[in-house]
């Protein structure tokens, strides 16, 4: 495994004017993947943006990988990546909070450095380059397709489409401290949506009808609100 580099920013040429005003599009929407942004920046003669930092588990895996890869080989002599991932995940889950602290701290330092590097990179670009690359202003969050659609519906005065009781529960579960604790415990960084849906499904399956009732009520309220709105459109 190649060592993952800390994010760096190359100095832009002095002929590039500083960005004075943020683009609305750049602030709200990222249209390209990180790899596409880097490739596009290169084609424009610009340095690529700094690479996103690693999370705590990735810091741990980077340290562990060289010590275990030789112990897990397939019959053809190549590294068994699935077995390596399984062993690494098991070792991560077995770490105490104290043992994980150094990886959490390393990830936090990398994140702070990335924020600083990205801000400097963003502000070094002319406005048209920011627009062309679809960069997000420092500190702003990009909007997903569903979020943009929801914003458009809200602007039209249209209520959100009603959801079934489980999906109302899932919406609340995504924002819960319980899920955050589960993810920290299991070292989840990738596949968050799948992990969340799985854990929500497991929790929903063992809940009593009485425990589910609050989300059933919320779902019914959504259906009533939407039906009333639809009736006014007729």
How large a portion of the residues is in β-strands, by DSSP E?
Answer: under 5%
Number of strands: 0
Q: Could you say which structural class the secondary elements and strand pairing correspond to?
A: mainly alpha
What level of helicity do the residues show? 55-70%
**Number of distinct helices:** 11
Estimated radius of gyration? 23 Å
Pick out the low-confidence regions.
1-30
Described by strand count, sense and barrel closure, the largest sheet is: none
GO cellular component, one term: nucleus
Protein name: HMG box domain-containing protein
DNA-binding region: 50-122, 159-226
GO molecular function: DNA binding
Keywords:
single chain, 234 residues, mainly alpha, 11 helices, 63% helix, 0% strand, flat, disordered N terminus
Topology:
Blueprint: H1 24-28, H2 34-43, H3 56-68, H4 81-94, H5 97-124, H6 127-133, H7 145-155, H8 165-174, H9 177-186, H10 192-206, H11 209-233
InterPro entries: HMG_box_dom, HMG_box_dom_sf, HMGB
Keywords: DNA-binding, Nucleus
Organism: Naganishia liquefaciens
Task: Explain how this protein is built.
This protein has 234 residues and is mainly α. It contains 11 helices and no strands. The longest helix is centred in the middle third of the chain and has 28 residues, at 97-124. The chain is flat and about 65 Å long. It starts with 23 loop residues before the first helix and ends with a helix.
């Amino acid at each position: 495994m190649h060592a993952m580099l800390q994010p760096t920013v190359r100095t832009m040429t002095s002929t590039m004017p500083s960005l004075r005003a943020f683009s609305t599009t750049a602030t709200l929407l990222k249209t390209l993947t990180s790899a596409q942004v880097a490739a596009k920046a290169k084609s424009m003669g610009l340095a690529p943006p700094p690479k996103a930092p690693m999370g705590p588990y990735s810091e741990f895996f980077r340290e562990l990988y060289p010590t275990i890869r030789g112990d897990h080989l397939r019959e053809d002599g190549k590294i068994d990546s699935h077995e390596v991932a399984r062993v690494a995940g098991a070792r991560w889950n077995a770490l105490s909070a104290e043992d994980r602290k150094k990886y959490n701290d390393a990830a936090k330092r990398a994140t702070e450095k990335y924020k600083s590097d990205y801000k400097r990179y963003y502000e070094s670009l002319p406005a048209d380059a920011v627009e062309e690359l679809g960069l997000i202003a420092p500190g702003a969050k990009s909007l997903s397709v569903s979020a943009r659609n929801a914003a458009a519906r809200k602007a039209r005065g249209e209520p959100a489409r009603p959801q079934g009781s489980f999906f109302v529960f899932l919406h609340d579960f995504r924002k819960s401290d319980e899920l955050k604790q589960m993810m920290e415990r299991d070292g989840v960084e990738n596949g968050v949506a799948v992990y969340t849906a799985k854990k929500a499904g497991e929790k929903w399956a063992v809940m009593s009808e009485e425990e589910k009732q609050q989300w059933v009520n919320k779902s019914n309220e959504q259906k009533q609100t939407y039906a009333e709105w639809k009736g006014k459109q007729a």
